[in-house]
């Protein structure tokens, strides 16, 4: 049975953050709030946990378009090829925020995630809970949006209902209040000009 932890975004309790980090380091899978929809993810260095997240989404890990949540932009060079100055400035203007930036991946990206692709999505959400977890963990976490089976409500926004659905499938559910139901804006930065490939709740500041 998954742990259910209520946290406050303004001031997430360090003891709860530590609890979640311990779960991630043990190869656990968690559900957590972001600045858009609730996400499901794990430590990027735990291949078995990555497989579990893929299974929960009903896809193969090698084919999945998972993203990384980073604490800030200092992690970028660990996992991406050098970025153009104009892209760096674009990201700096919009992050932390509800955006996923698609960048070219380098060889530090775990093989399971890079099998057939040369890119990686990077998220730095404007949400203190998940950023503080990543900060204490010391490396990014894998993230993917939590979608509901209900076609009318594409994204599940109520953490108590999420817990009911996932309590036997994940190791922890973090209640950070109601989530949004519009996913992040995705910007592909791997070509000459950055291109919005999915518009979420916010337009980027160019």
Topology:
Layout: E1 3-6, H1 14-25, E2 30-32, E3 39-43, H2 47-57, E4 67-69, H3 76-79, H4 85-94, E5 99-104, H5 111-114, E6 119-123, H6 128-137, E7 141-145, H7 159-166, E8 172-175, E9 185-188, E10 195-198
Parallel strand pairs: 1-8, 2-8, 4-6, 5-9
Antiparallel strand pairs: 2-3, 3-7, 4-7, 5-6, 9-10
Q: What is the averaged pLDDT score?
A: 93
Please indicate the percent range of residues in DSSP E strands (runs of 2 or more). Answer: 15-25%
Radius of gyration: 16 Å
The helix content, as a percent range, equals 25-40%
Number of strands: 10
The helix-and-strand class reads: alpha/beta
Would you mind describing this structure in some detail?
The chain has 206 residues and is of the alpha/beta class. 29% of the residues lie in helices and 21% in strands. The protein has 7 helices and 10 strands. Strands 1-8-2-3-7-4-6-5-9-10 form a 10-stranded mixed sheet, with helices on both faces. α1 (14-25) packs across α6 (128-137). The chain is globular and about 45 Å long. It starts with a strand and ends in an 8-residue tail after the last strand. The mean pLDDT is 93.
């Amino acid at each position: 049975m998954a742990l259910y932890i209520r946290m406050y975004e303004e001031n997430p309790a360090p003891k709860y953050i530590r609890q979640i980090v311990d779960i991630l380091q043990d190869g656990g899978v968690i559900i957590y709030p972001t600045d858009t929809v609730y996400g499901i993810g794990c430590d990027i260095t735990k291949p078995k946990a990555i497989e579990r997240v893929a299974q929960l989404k009903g896809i193969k890990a090698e084919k999945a378009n998972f993203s990384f949540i980073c604490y800030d932009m200092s992690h970028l060079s660990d996992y991406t090829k050098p970025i153009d100055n104009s892209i760096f400035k674009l990201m700096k203007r919009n992050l932390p925020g509800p955006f996923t930036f698609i960048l070219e991946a380098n060889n530090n990206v775990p093989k399971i995630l890079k099998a057939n692709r040369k890119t990686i999505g990077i998220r730095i959400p404007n949400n203190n809970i998940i950023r503080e977890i990543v900060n204490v963990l010391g490396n990014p976490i894998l993230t993917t949006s939590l979608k509901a089976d209900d076609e009318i409500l594409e994204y599940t926004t109520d953490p108590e209902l999420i817990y009911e659905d996932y309590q036997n499938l994940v190791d922890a559910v973090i209640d950070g209040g109601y989530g949004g139901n519009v996913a992040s804006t995705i910007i592909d930065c791997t070509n000459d000009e950055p291109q919005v490939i999915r518009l979420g709740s916010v337009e980027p500041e160019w």
